[in-house]
Every structure is written in structure tokens, then in C-alpha cells.
Amino acid sequence: xxxxxxxxxxxxxxxxxxxxxxxxxxxxxxxxxxxxxxxxxxxxxxxxxxxxxxxxxxxxxxxxxxxxxxxxxxxxxxxxxxxxxxxxxxxxxxxxxxxxxxxxxxxxxxxxxxxxxxxxxxxxxxxxxxxxxxxxxxxxxxxxxxxxxxxxxxxxxxxxxxxxxxxxxxxxxxxxxxxxxxxxxxxxxxxxxxxxxxxxxxxxxxxxxxxxxxxxxxxxxxxxxxxxxxxxxxxxxxxxxxxxxxxxxxxxxxxxxxxxxxxxxxxxxxxxxxxxxxxxxxxxxxxxxxxxxxxxxxxxxxxxxxxxxxxxxxxxxxxxxxxxxxxxxxxxxxxxxxxxxxxxxxxxxxxxxxxxxxxxxxxxxxxxxxxxxxxxxxxxx
Length: 381
Hints:
The protein is an alpha/beta fold.
């Protein structure tokens, strides 16, 4: 059965993990777009503060203090959506926690808690959401990661949980397609994102976690989530670096292992001492902030914005095929490359540049940022 998504300003959207990072950035963007929101997180205090901010700007918000690891709490989130707004159109499973340190340095209690939130929280949310969505239609959006595809050192259990999220989400999507349920299922795979994740992880080291570059703004993930609520996609990589990392791992996994072992461990440790080793694993973490304090350049993802624009993505793919064909046949020149929508950089190398502006999921148009790296060196968080 087909499902025709509503415009954002006609949707009720449920967001878990809504008081920090990607969840908070998504709540803000959805409120600006006119959506009515049901926000869930463990901290009632942080939820009240976020709701007040959004309502002052004209938003319509209901909040539920809930732990997604507990099915009864997740059921209360759905009940709040029904009692306040009559139901919901999109459910975003975003809540997540992290551990930073060697797997052998961890303990079973922490490892289980991470899986209870990151994996079972998404299972609980998905199964609860389907009770409504299968009857009324809508979108289920799960937050995976580039580490759903590529395991990384020092965040091994986090990587394992995100691999599990991918397997669950893909299998659920297939089952829903088999029964022709009016539900779309999207897996979002962010690369390194500038959120308070680095401060909220359970930290077994003496240093604060620092996500390796390239690092992207949380608003890029929010744009992808809201795009999927209106224009369903199977999965969305946020950050060209993450896409390249995943592709490289698929075709040369041994080389990717070697790179990770030699480079990523050092990149993940900042110069700052670990300020809060307990983090937000066993209790609510730092809320109220979408961004962290990453010291480097935080980028927009024009790769992702292009993939969210089918016409532009098709044009770039056609241009790429034309260039590849010319290279194979030997019928290649810089003039033809420019005609295909590409232009040389000052160094003489060629970089793909859209011939039209790139539109974000919320309609904003932004020129291309030349600082976005095409080669990934780090994971998502």
C-alpha cells in the first residue's frame, strides 16, 4: 500500500533524544517548518527548557520524560502524541549513548546499557510506532551511523550497536514492503557530527573524545531527517566523508582496518582531560546544546544536499557517466569536462561543481563550500 507523506507544516513528528545534538537540531528545524512536535528524553528539566524555547518561537510541543530502553516509557510517548495531537505522522528514533575506550577496558554493565539504548531503544520505538503507522501511514526514521558500515577502534561497542541498528532497520523495511504496509523506513548514517556526544560518552580514557575530521554540523543531519519525512529514501549518508569511508571499507576492508589502526586512534583523543568520565550513559547527559566545541572547521555537506535533490543528483550522475565514457574512448578534453558541469581548480585538478545552487532539505540554497573534504578520516557520533 502506498503512502503519500504530508508537508512538514501538516505533520506531527515524534523525536527521541530531543534535548541534545542531532535531536535538538531536528526539533528546532521541524518547529521552524511548522510541524507539531512530541519530544522525548530522559531529563524532564531539559525537555521543559527546550519546549519553552520552541514555544516562544511559535512552536507546538508536547514533551515526555522517557527512557527508550523501557517499552512502557516508549508507549507513553505514543500515548502523548495521541492525547495532544491525535497521533503522529513521523517517528524519529534518535536517542543514543556512547562509550569511548578499548573494548577490554569496559564492563558488562556499561556494554549492556549502551545496547539497551542504542539498539533496543530503536527496536522499542519502531515497534511502538508501527502500531499507529501501519493503520494511518507515515515515516519511521532510525539514526544509524557511518559506523553501521565501518567499525572503528575506541568506539567498538558503539560501532557494534550501530551495526545492529542497520540489520534491524533493513530487515524491518523488507518485512513491511512484503506486507505492503503504508510505512516508509529510512536509515540515516551521519559521519562525524559536531554535537555534545564527545562530552556525553562514558569515557575510559584520560582524554576527552574528539571526533576525527571531516566534521559536519548537526543541522545537516536535521535536514536529512526532515527530508526523509516528506521524501522517503532507503538510507541517507550525511557527509561525503562518511560515504567514501563506507565505500572504501566495502571494497578494501583490510586496507581500511590498517588505516583505522594506524591513524584513527590518535585522532580520537583531544588535548583536553576527560571532564566527566561517567558521561550520559547511565544517567542523562549534557542537554540543551546542539553543538559541541570542535576546534576545527565544521562543514556543511554538499554531497548530502546533492543526494537529497534527485534532479541535481541525476544531472551529476549523467555528467559523470559522460566523462567516464570519454575517458574510456579517449575522446576527452577539458572543454568537454566544463560542458559537463565541472571546472578545474587552481591546482589544475578537477572538482565536481553543480551548475545550479544546492538546496538543503528545508529549502535553503547555499553556494558550494570548497572546504568539504572528499576523503574521510573518522567516524560518526
